[in-house]
Design brief:
Elements: H1 26-50, E1 56-59, E2 72-75, E3 82-84, E4 92-93, E5 99-106, H2 113-125, E6 137-140, E7 148-153, H3 155-166, E8 176-178, E9 181-185, H4 186-191, H5 200-215
Helix pairs in contact: 1-3, 2-5
Bound molecules: zinc ion.
Length: 263
């Protein structure tokens, strides 16, 4: 069993804050995509070396995840190569130019890429999600031009990608946002967080909304006051500080659930 860690005092990345305003032109993104691919190939070699005899730990999957009660294995590492979900969706949100995203699952992970893509698409389409800002829009694609990838990776590969991408040590525990997309630690995706007392789907919404928030240029925030909803940009896994766990950037009335900027 992999030991759950509590809330560390030192700042580290379930996600490192990213600079604001990283909106780039598409050709540059494509170029960076190629660059990322090169990094992935190298990372894959490293991971294969490090995790040649990867151990696996089983976690009980909540029935709320839609994948039944069959335990899903969480290998400590994987090949660093990914399968793209063959799933597409309509544009959601009012902005004219949707961020086109692909969902990829690291090879060897025993979850359905298509189901996962649909779950992520549902999170991004939710009226409490980032589209409530009135200008963000998203579209799930499986081929052709894209703006970012949402990758679900083993803890070992997550660490490799996050270190390569933003020099954050995710310590086998956390997620991150890198240039070109989001890296979601399979352990968090399957097991949730000790500070989040709710259905696993809601915690997945927090992961996607938080990391996508970084991609959109949002920085970390803190708890606005006891009993208030924790901002989605708060690092809730490191402690709620009196706030109530919350997975959504907006409430049902369309109000932004924010907090003071983190120091
Ligand atoms: Zn973050």
């Amino acid at each position: 069993m992999v030991q759950q860690k509590g809330s560390p005092s030192r700042d580290r990345g379930d996600d490192a804050g990213r600079p604001v305003g990283r909106i780039m032109r598409r050709p540059r993104r494509l170029f960076l995509g190629v660059l990322l691919l090169a990094v992935l190939i190298v990372a894959s070699a490293v991971v294969s070396h490090r995790f040649g005899a990867a151990s696996t730990t089983s976690y009980a999957t909540s029935p709320a995840s839609g994948q039944g009660a069959t335990p899903t294995a969480v290998p400590s590492g994987g090949p660093g190569t990914f399968v793209t979900a063959r799933a597409t969706g309509e544009k959601v949100g009012q902005g004219p130019n949707p961020l086109r995203y692909m969902v990829q699952i690291e090879k060897g992970i025993d979850i359905s890429a298509e189901q996962t893509a649909k779950e992520i698409a549902g999170i991004l389409a939710d009226p409490r999600g980032w589209t409530a800002n009135g200008y963000s829009a998203f579209q799930l694609v499986s081929s052709g031009p894209y703006d970012l990838k949402v990758r679900i990776a083993t803890p070992g590969t997550t660490d490799t990608l996050c270190w390569e991408g933003i020099h954050e040590d995710t310590e086998g525990e956390y997620d991150c946002e890198v240039l070109g997309g989001l890296v979601v630690n399979l352990k968090r995706w399957i097991d949730g967080s000790p500070t989040f007392d709710g259905p696993i789907h809601d915690y997945r919404a927090l992961i996607i909304n938080h990391e996508m928030g970084h991609f959109l240029g949002h920085q970390h925030q803190t708890c606005p006051g006891p009993g208030r909803p924790a901002p989605v940009m708060m690092q809730q896994i490191k402690g709620l500080h009196g706030c109530v766990a919350n997975a959504w950037p907006y409430d049902r009335g369309g109000h932004y659930l924010s907090g003071p900027p983190a120091a």
